[in-house]
Write a structure and sequence with these properties.
This protein is α/β, with parallel strands linked by helices. It has eight helices and eight strands; from the N terminus they run E-H-E-H-E-H-E-E-H-E-H-E-H-H-E-H.
Length: about 220
């Protein structure tokens, strides 16, 4: 069984296309968990209009993307758990490719490459891993390689990272480091997600301040120990 955990908030512009790219890849016993963080636009109506029994909708008011993903993951029942943003598009072979690689590699967590698209769906020349993926703890404390929308992990790894520490700076960074400390992380060198960059992204691509860079890494090190 596969669980897809999607966090939504005012995603009316893109969420329909994202769900349309996910559902055809799921079997009848799979689930798409949507945790909405208090949307004030038509996001929830768009989601409800799919009228698909595999979609489980939860209405929340965290006003916090980290807590929203934590909630969705806690609700998951699948053996394999995929994280999903609301504004990307999945490659049509994404789920099958990940499941195949889980069995071949015996990985606990898989990260794939992504193809960047703009707000209009046009591909760009940007690369997320221009120097290749690095899965080690030290390299990821230096520069985070764990991009949530390209991550999937086994259900039995949840005990290694849940509950999230209350001061977790980013959910994907924490999950990747926590699983990597005790389990096996593998990189799937295929662009299996069209990762949309637009002005409303939660992660805008802006550089962090030096104080945040130091503070976030101290928090992660403290919680990993």
């Amino acid at each position: 069984m596969v669980s897809v955990c999607m966090a939504t908030f005012n995603g009316e512009k893109f969420v329909k296309k994202q769900i349309e790219s996910i559902l055809p890849q799921l079997n009848p016993e799979d689930e798409l968990i949507i945790s909405d963080d208090g949307s004030t636009d038509s996001t929830l109506k768009i989601v409800s209009d799919f009228d698909d029994s595999r979609i489980r909708i939860f209405k929340n008011s965290f006003r916090n993307v980290v807590k929203n993903f934590e909630f969705a993951i806690n609700k998951s029942n699948g053996e394999y758990i995929f994280l999903s943003d609301q504004d990307d598009i999945w490659h049509q072979d994404k789920v099958a490719a990940y499941l195949k690689y889980f069995k071949e590699s015996n990985a606990d967590l898989i990260v794939s490459d992504v193809a960047f698209i703009d707000a209009h769906g046009n591909t760009t020349k940007d690369e997320f891993f221009p120097r290749g993926f690095k899965g080690g703890t030290l390299s990821n404390l230096k520069k985070n390689n764990f991009i949530g929308c390209a991550m999937a992990f086994k259900e039995d790894t949840k005990k290694w990272f849940l509950p999230f520490p209350t001061d977790t700076p980013m959910h994907d960074w924490w999950i990747g480091l926590a699983i990597g400390k005790k389990g096996l992380v593998r990189y799937l060198d295929r662009k299996l997600i069209y990762y949309r960059r637009h002005h409303q992204n939660v992660t805008s691509g802006k550089k962090s301040t030096l104080s945040n860079i130091i503070r976030w890494r101290w928090i992660l090190i403290k919680n990993l120990c």
